[in-house]
């Protein structure tokens, strides 16, 4: 289950190279900018600590809590999600990873009873400000779901759906081809663009969904366990794709696969469930958030170590 | 199976053989299902054959085409079944027109409204109102048509429709569909009340079809920046298309076959006029109003109308299937 340290280094190091402003610059400027982020205060028994502050944040969360009715699913999340990097959310089932992910692009608005408190700043704008249009938020912050969900339309129409929706008036054929090429699906489907998207294999469908998401040229891509329904080969293809995409997109990925988190992400946030003794409420908390190498090799928290080494569910 | 074959080595072990109880029950069940299943066809066929034979002399007397296009209806008094003895004239066009026009008015008014109501209940209404609203719609679908007919005739026509028709006539009376004089009862009055009658059933079905639309596809559209309206129009409506056509056909079928309410509201004249404000009759209403006093020859005439009505609904159904099939093929819809 646990990735060997060498493997982790190997897989995460190369992609960091070209994007020079990435983690390397991050760590260099680390000590100088240490006062940039205030120290986290948390009501959790073990405070979430961020050792290395994020310099160029696409999301800045301040005390974000998400409720379903009166049930607090995740509480007091304070973190910054870096731009043009991959951030992984890991943690046991039910700790609110999907919930937090969905609230980043206001997909939670569609869940009855869901409400968000705290500040969620995306590129300097509060995503939950009253005059913000959720549809516009979602256009900029795309999402890929756990289960591949192509429309019952042709492959072409699937990819063209978003651009059409947003009034794209350029070379649609070119855009479809380019999007399919980016996910490595073009050569596999170029002769059957008119066929139903449902006629593809699961892995192809998931890549089609990613192509559909990037065809609207979003800024951020949120992925909720995008590989959980796929075989190892399809999974590797999608991981390669994530590596390629991060030069242009900021990616947040939820995964239950430790190796995957170690392989694809630059930063990892570990969430866990705190049980409130008075009400027995199970609230998800951010336990530790740091460079992925740190989380997997030298975590600051005992709970993180237990989880990533597989000693705790 | 015999004991000898059972002991052949290549046979499956005896544990896999079906038990006696199943060997008996299975064929019995199969027979039962087959008989009940086929009896539906037998009943249907018997009805069609019987009606058509009764009506046959009328078609011979009038010619099938003449029957459909003739615009005079006079029942004759002959007791024989020889078309040569018939004394009546049987032209069904006024009633075909009445049925066609009232049903079309009904569906044209009801379908868009039903879509809006279903969409409202499913997507926009406050959550705690959704259940009560959809129950109300379903309850309305069960209101007997005579109630609609009475309400239409004694309240809606004098209070709402007549003034509206007068306004319509003064404004568009030159157009052949809205020529006066205004009576109140007539094609349009019947069509509007029919629309109200079929609205609940169409709404109820469309609402159900919309409700089972897969959430994950809607989420996919939302995640691409679609608004609720866009999700409705581009995701839910296309994949609910066949269900919506089905609902419309059910509504249309009800409108075409509706007898009592139409009889009360259409004005019951045997002449016909293209203007929607005029009085006329429909096929179903004509049968209901004439069969009691009909002579044997007249009954045959009504049977012929029945056959035409049946053909009419069959054509509608086939057309609906073709539509679903074609659109499904064009849209690359895997659901069809
Ligand atoms: N639509 C909802 N309505 C009410 N409660 C919900 C809803 N969705 C999730 N929850 C609750 O919120 C908590 C967090 O759920 P969430 O799906 O975010 O967990 P997760 O970390 O993604 O789990 P998993 O790893 O199993 O996907 C859970 O206790 C869950 O029961
Ligand atoms: Mg989840």
TrEMBL record, chain A:
- Residue span of region Disordered: 1-53
In terms of InterPro entries, this protein maps to: AAA+_ATPase, ABC_transporter-like_ATP-bd, ABC_transporter-like_CS, P-loop_NTPase, PstB-like
Tell me which residues make up the ABC transporter domain. 59-298
Q: Which UniProt keywords apply?
A: ATP-binding, Nucleotide-binding, Translocase, Transport
Q: Which GO terms describe its biological process?
A: phosphate ion transmembrane transport
Q: Does the keyword Kinase apply?
A: no
- Biased composition range(s): Low complexity: 21-34
- One annotated Gene Ontology cellular component of this protein: membrane
Q: Pfam families, from UniProt?
A: ABC_tran (PF00005)
Q: Name one GO molecular function term.
A: phosphate transmembrane transporter activity
Q: Where are the transmembrane segments?
A: none
Under which name does UniProt file this protein? Phosphate ABC transporter ATP-binding protein
Automatic annotation (TrEMBL), chain B:
Question: What is a biological process (GO) this protein takes part in?
Answer: phosphate ion transport
Residue ranges crossing the lipid bilayer per the database entry: 28-49, 95-121, 133-157, 186-206, 241-266, 302-324
Q: What does this protein do?
A: Part of the binding-protein-dependent transport system for phosphate; probably responsible for the translocation of the substrate across the membrane.
User: What Pfam families would the database entry show?
Assistant: BPD_transp_1 (PF00528)
- Organism for this UniProt entry: Streptomyces lonarensis
Where does it live in the cell?
Cell membrane
Similarity comment text for this entry: Belongs to the binding-protein-dependent transport system permease family. CysTW subfamily.
Coiled-coil parts of chain: none
Q: Report the SUPFAM superfamilies cross-referenced here.
A: MetI-like (SSF161098)
- Predominant location category: membrane
* NCBIfam families cross-referenced by the UniProt entry: phosphate_pstC (TIGR02138)
Q: InterPro entries from the xrefs?
A: MetI-like (IPR000515), MetI-like_sf (IPR035906), Phosphate_PstC (IPR011864), Phosphate_Transport_Permease (IPR051124)
Protein name stated in the entry = Phosphate transport system permease protein
Keywords associated with the record:
Cell membrane, Membrane, Phosphate transport, Transmembrane, Transmembrane helix, Transport
Membrane topology, as annotated: Multi-pass membrane protein
Any one GO cellular component localisation term in the record = plasma membrane
Give the gene symbol.
pstC
């Amino acid at each position: 289950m646990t990735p060997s340290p060498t493997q982790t280094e190997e897989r995460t190091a190369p992609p960091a190279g070209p994007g020079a402003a990435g983690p390397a610059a991050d760590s260099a400027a680390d000590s100088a900018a240490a006062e940039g982020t205030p120290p986290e205060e948390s009501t959790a028994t073990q405070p979430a600590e961020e050792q290395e502050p994020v310099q160029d944040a696409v999301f800045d969360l301040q005390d974000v809590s998400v409720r379903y009715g009166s049930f607090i699913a995740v509480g007091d999340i304070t973190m910054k999600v870096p731009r043009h990097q991959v951030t992984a959310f890991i943690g046991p089932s039910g700790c609110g990873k999907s919930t937090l992910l969905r609230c980043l692009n206001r997909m939670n608005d569609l869940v009855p009873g869901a409400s968000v408190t705290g500040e969620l700043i995306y590129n300097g704008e509060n995503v939950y400000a009253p005059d913000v249009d959720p549809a516009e938020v979602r256009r900029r912050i795309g999402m890929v779901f756990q289960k591949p969900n192509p429309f019952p339309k042709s492959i072409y129409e699937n990819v063209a759906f978003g651009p059409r929706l947003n009034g794209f008036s350029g070379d649609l054929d070119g855009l479809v081809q380019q999007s399919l090429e980016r996910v490595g699906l073009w050569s596999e489907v170029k002769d059957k663009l008119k066929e139903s998207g449902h006629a593809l294999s699961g892995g192809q469908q998931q890549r089609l969904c990613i192509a559909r998401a990037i065809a609207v040229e979003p800024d951020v891509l949120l992925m909720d366990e995008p590989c959980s329904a796929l075989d190892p080969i399809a999974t590797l293809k999608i991981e390669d794709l994530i590596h390629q995409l991060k030069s242009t997109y900021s990616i947040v990925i939820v995964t239950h696969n430790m190796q995957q988190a170690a392989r694809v992400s630059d930063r990892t946030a570990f969430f866990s469930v705190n049980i409130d003794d008075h009400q027995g409420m199970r609230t998800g908390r951010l336990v530790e958030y740091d460079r992925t190498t740190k989380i997997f090799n030298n975590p600051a928290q005992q709970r993180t170590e237990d989880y990533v080494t597989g000693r705790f569910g | 199976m015999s004991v000898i074959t059972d002991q052949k080595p290549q046979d499956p072990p005896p544990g896999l053989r079906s038990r006696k109880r199943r060997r008996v029950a299975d064929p019995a069940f199969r027979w039962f299902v087959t008989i009940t299943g086929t009896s539906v066809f037998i009943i249907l066929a018997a009805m069609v054959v019987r009606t058509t034979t009764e009506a046959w002399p009328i078609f011979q007397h009038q010619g099938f085409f003449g029957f459909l296009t003739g615009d005079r209806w006079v029942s004759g008094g002959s007791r024989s079944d020889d078309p040569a003895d018939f004394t009546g004239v049987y032209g069904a066009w006024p009633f075909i027109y009445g049925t066609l026009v009232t049903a079309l008015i009904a569906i044209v008014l009801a379908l868009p409204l039903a879509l809006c109501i279903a969409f409202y209940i499913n997507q926009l209404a406050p959550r705690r109102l959704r259940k009560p609203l959809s129950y109300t719609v379903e309850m309305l679908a069960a209101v007997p048509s005579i109630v609609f007919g009475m309400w239409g005739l004694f309240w809606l026509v004098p209070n709402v429709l007549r003034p509206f028709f007068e306004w319509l006539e003064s404004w568009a009376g030159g157009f052949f569909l809205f020529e006066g004089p205004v009576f109140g009862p007539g094609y349009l009055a019947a069509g509007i009340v029919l629309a109200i009658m079929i609205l609940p059933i169409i709404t109820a079905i469309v609402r159900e079809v919309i409700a089972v639309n897969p959430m994950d596809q809607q989420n996919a559209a939302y995640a691409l920046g679609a608004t609720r309206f866009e999700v409705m129009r581009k995701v839910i409506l296309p994949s609910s298309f066949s269900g919506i056509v089905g609902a419309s056909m059910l509504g249309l079928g009800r409108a075409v076959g509706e007898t009592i309410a139409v009889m009360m509201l259409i004005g019951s004249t045997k002449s016909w006029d293209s203007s929607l404000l005029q009085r006329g009759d429909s096929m179903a209403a004509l049968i209901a109003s004439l069969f009691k006093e009909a002579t044997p020859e007249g009954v045959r005439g009504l049977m012929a109308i029945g056959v035409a009505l049946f053909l009419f609904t069959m054509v509608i159904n086939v057309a609906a299937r073709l539509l679903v099939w074609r659109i499904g093929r064009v849209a690359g819809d895997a659901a069809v």
